Amino acid sequence: MALRSFAELDDREVLALAIGAEEEDSRIYQSFADRLREAFPHSAKLFDAMAEEERGHRDGLYALYRTKFGEHLPPIRRDDVKGFLKRRPIWLQKTLTVDDMRKEAEVMEMQAARFYDKAAERTLDVSVRELLIRLADAERGHERRAAELADAHLTPGARDEEAETRHRLFVLQYVQPGLAGLMDGSVSTLAPIFAAAFATHSNWQTFLVGLAASVGAGISMGLTEALSDDGKITGRGAPWIRGLVCGLMTTIGGLGHTLPYLVPDSWPNGFLIATSIAALIVFVELWAIAWIRARYMDTPFLQAVFQVVAGGALVFLAGIFIGSA
Question: Binning pLDDT at 50, 70 and 90, where does residue 233 land?
Fold first, then answer.
């Protein structure tokens, strides 16, 4: 079907489009509020109020429409008109943050106001121009009202509370699975890699063992994390995102002390060089894990160092002992 240009629309159709736009925006804001209600109640109240504002504007527009044209709206939609602003279906994404929603609301109001301004500049009909100018002013009023509502609902205490909630969700959804993967990849692969190194004294063979152990552990840990918890009750987020984070960090943790064994065997003291670099990387990995545990998991740093470094050292020595037997 061919699209119509905005200039072809009469006042009745423009009003119908405006009513439809206000209705759609109110439903978007209400969906934001419903999704935030449990974890971010203050922001949910903000979007509740914005949705109510949009419903009020819709009702006012429809009252004007009934006065001029009667009860029935013409079957015209945004998609039927060239150049009419199209809303991105961002609200369909399951991983939207509070800030994403607030930014989208600002864009929605700004787009609507700009569209009505441009449309008013192009029309030659005085009554339509006046209508479009009023609509543009109304959208700018929405934007100002949104800022007022944010100040009313998002007090400093509420902002601090929501920042704490965002931090907690970040830890649950990304830090915990990433840390679990990094620990598994860094520690569990130590024994097979260094056992292979001291058993074969071949850098290339050791690299192949380390590569297989790292990739295999990454796949295993990623699937385990993804399938262990769907996140609906625990609030830990999308399972496949957690699984991807966990799997990638597991693979990275193993590859860290595997890559040094790409040092050619033909180099003088090539095995000693590769093993020394790998041991240094293991030390750095274990200290990084201890720091992350202390930073995000509220574990005292010295306790985290003892737990991680001591455990890793035992696995490291076990690999050397087994490989040298």
Answer: very low
Which residue from 293, 279, 318, 275 is spatially nearest to 182, judged by alpha carbons?
293
Would you say 78 and 21 are in contact if contact means Cβ atoms under 8 Å apart? yes
Q: Tens digits of per-residue pLDDT, 93-118?
A: 566 677 777 767 776 777 777 767 76
Residue type at position 120: A
Q: Which domains does the chain have, with CATH numbers?
A: 6-154 (1.20.1260.10), 166-324 (no CATH)
- Which pair of structure tokens corresponds to residue 87? 């809303």
User: HEC profile for 160-197?
Assistant: HHHHHHHHHHHHHHHHHHHHHHHHHHHHHCHHHHHHHH
Q: How far apart are CA 294 and CA 290, in angstroms?
A: 6
Count CA atoms closer than 13 A to 274's CA, side-chain side.
Answer: 26
**Which positions ≥6 away from 169 have C-beta within 8 Å?**
39, 235, 237
CA distance 198 to 39: 52
pTM over 0.85: no
Position with higher pLDDT, 321 vs 277: 277
- Give Cα 283 to chain centroid, integer Å: 32
CB 149 within 8 A of CB 46: yes
